[in-house]
Amino acid sequence: MKPFTARWQERDISHLFFTEVFMNSVQMIRTVLIIPNDYNPNQMTANEFAELKTEVTRLGKPPKPLIVRPYQDQFQIVDGEHGWRAAKELDLPEVPCEVLDIDDFEARRQTYKRNSHGQNDPLKLGQMFDQMRKAKKLSVRKLAKEIDLPEATVRNYLAYVRALSLRTEHTEHIRALTTQSFGMTISNDPTPETEITALSIRQVTTYLDLPNLIRDAWLEAGMPTSIDNYRVPDNKTPYPRLHELVMADLDCGVSCKPTEFTKTLKHSLTCLDWLKSHTTIENAADYVRSVARWQLPLEMLRELPLVDRGNTRTVLLPAGKWEIICFDLGSGVMAGQSYSQASVKWHIEQALREAHIDPTVARRPHEIEQEQLVSNAPDFIRNAQHLSLEEKAAFMEYTSTLPEEIQLAAKRKACDLLHDAPDAHGRGRAAVYELVRVCVRESRLSTCKQQMISHASTPDLARQIIVQQFAAHETLSGSPDPGTSVLEVISSRLSEVDGPELAVIASLLMLPDKSLEHIADVWVRSVEQVSTGCVLADRPA
Questions:
Q1: How far apart are CA 499 and CA 194, in angstroms?
Q2: Among 98, 120, 421, 535, whose Cα sits 20 to 30 Å from the Cα of 132?
Q3: Quick check: pTM over 0.90?
Q4: Mean pLDDT value across the chain
């Protein structure tokens, strides 16, 4: 250790000498010769500091000696900063100190180990660990071993340092951009340090895992937990969909306002899905981006004017012109105007005419998709002259859980009904869906009725169906008759039930919508069958 210099002597500390006794014993050192370090992570609340100050007043000194080390021509605090601050405020001329001859790394280690009051600032603690790691060029694992902490704990605190770096970089970029664009300086309150320090370790982890721009919008929006819906556990990229969004440059529409973040993020992801499903449109991202930026309904992209060039489609409007249309519509919506698809069509037609393009030559994405869908349709749909393209596509899009042959028969019947109806043409997608649904239901009821009629004529088969329906319920447990299974009890009791009532029970279990008309018809048929001893002809429902 170097001897004291003249500057030390000028500060009237010439009575101190670097001897073994001095370095390891408690000495009274003038308060003005002591300085705090710049890495102390320990923080005290105002109430905690007031209590400490009261104790210092009572004792006439800090409750325990300060731990200091020689630093330049002064003494730097290793532990006891709050006691020293209380002594300064009380104008105590000197305080008891234990002087340690230690380097920067050991000073920081001692600061962490000796702090027992207050609460550690996670960011400052992370910064201190980072300084220690760099000072000795240690890995995180070796640093954790040096300070006797779990490696995961050290990594958690170091995460605050990385988060601060990213947040500071973003804040400075936004400030520079604002100054350049608008000639004004934005406030730096709260500071990045304040924002990151306030985060929990879980929130810091989320912030680091999120892609650029999304992470800062999430932070500024108050860190809504809805972001967890997009996290994929144990994945190399924790938020793959959000990274896709940023890669496609569609995050421009994500708002940092607390009330809008979740909604705008969901809308932007919907735009991403549309883009991924329309890969044949050249430069589609440029047009989708405008819709995402101005938070316009996705249906606006249905009006994108295209020309078919075989394997690809080209948009007839330049991306810049499309952006202007989106800006006009988006600004109107923000000003309280209602969005109108008719207005979208009008803007597009005007833009096409200004570009000397005939609007009638433009094809829409949904029209091309519908044509592709209908090209694989059955002949009775594809060649139906009374159906519009949209209606034909609706026939193809309708699906149910019933067998394909039942669905096909229902669609054929619906197609015929539309042909026979005076106002069949142009009824639209909703009408087609409803009509097909009705026809499917009738087909299903007809099938169920035929099955129920057959069950009415064979009581044994009806019992079998009832038992099977009971067996299908996995939650069925226990038995009213010990030593006998539930299904055995059911079978035994059903043997005492007459055929018509068996048919009713079987019908109730089989028919999805419990149509009383059909069930009653089955019961009547069954009673007649029992009474006459013969199977009658089918009755109209």
A1: 79
A2: 98
A3: no
A4: 82
